[in-house]
Design goal:
The protein is of the alpha/beta class and 195 residues long. It is 33% helix and 26% strand. Helix 3 packs across helix 4. Keywords: Cytoplasm, Hydrolase, Nucleotide metabolism.
Amino acid sequence: MLKINKTIVLASTSPRRQNLLKQLGLNFIVHPSGIEENLSQASSPEEYVLTLSRKKAIEVAKNYNDALIISADTIVVLDGEIINKPKDPDEARQMLKKLSGKTHKVYTGFTILDTKTSKIYSDFEVTDVKFRELEDDEIEQYIATGSPFDKAGAYGIQDDYGAVFVERINGCFYNVVGFPLTKFYLAMKKFLSDD
């Protein structure tokens, strides 16, 4: 387990990220960054998630003198197109139809920032996700639950009906949930031991 003797701040309101950090036994407070999750000038999905996770951490860090800030950003990428969270049912429908029967990539970038020393570390994970062919009524029923609207790619692999859309994955499951738990844990161990 990680032993951290300072305030930990999660720069995210995502209940999934909160649950994953709790799995590691971490006590933390939640302080969302409030920054716009859009980065049109990013040259690659990796740059997109790394830059946004860093921006979120740096924004929240302004409020704390001695804390560890943890931030993350998750996107879905299909054929080079970045797919974020849907704004409305029509956009959710379009996203799910695009993903139907295809393999997409889920990228999550994360950042750890020590506000006392200004030490910062960022990394990312990528996972391949294969959707089965979705039926129109399945898409409509899922949209009616309201679940797609706070999720990149308009679906969740955990805890809801979106799980049955996924035929298989190649890579870290938790990355698809929204936080690459093993990679983060190892990064945090190294980050703390390097002090």
